Amino acid sequence: MVARVKGESFLVAVGLLYALALALDPPRAVRAAALGGKVFLAVVPVMAASFGALGLFQVLVKKERIARSLGHQSGWRGLLAASAFGSVLVGPVYIIFPLLLVMREHGARWAIITAVLTSWAVKVPMIPLEIQFLGWRFAALRSALVIAASIGLGLLVELLMPGSRPATAPGPGSGAEDL
User: N or C: which terminus of the chain has fewer CB atoms within 10 Å of its end residue's CB?
Assistant: First the structure.
């Protein structure tokens, strides 16, 4: 409910800004609305396909598998996988955040979500360009530091987020490792 109210508040704020722009300078407001509409129409097919893929992900990938691979019992292996996944993940923000939400709803822990989001700054497909313009030493150092920071930040966010630990942590032999 909170996310919905925030989204609606943003929509109302943008609407009010357009109304103000229309009152102050109608031709520019109309031009701005036309440009916004053009971008919207260009983005709609990609968003529709992306949300369709997220729907398939929710149906085809079992929650237990996400919880086992990216949940609290995933340990360091899960954090390293999340950092690697984030660094090869490509796509716009309006796809990444819904994907992370679905992962969280399927049992991924906050450290994993944070590690993916932080390591997303590495962008492995763009490293050759980074090397060409900024040098290999810079690219290697920045990438290594971002990956290391993604794990540290993930653990810190998890420590600070309320309700980030399961209510009862399963111990060895509890059967949780067999999920």
Answer: N
User: Are 86 and 118 a contacting pair, CB within 8 Å?
Assistant: yes
Please count the residues of the chain: 179
Amino acid at the residue 177: E
pLDDT digits (tens, 9 = 90+) for 150-179: 999 999 999 999 876 643 333 444 343 433
Residues 66, 103 contacting (CB under 8 angstroms): yes
- Residue 11 CB coordination number (10 Å): 10
Whose CA is closest to 113, among 150, 77, 148, 144?
Answer: 150
Residues near 40 by beta carbon (within 8 Å), at least 6 away in sequence? none
pLDDT tens per residue, range 65-76: 666 777 778 888
Measure the CA–CA gap between 99 and 53, rounded to whole angstroms: 9
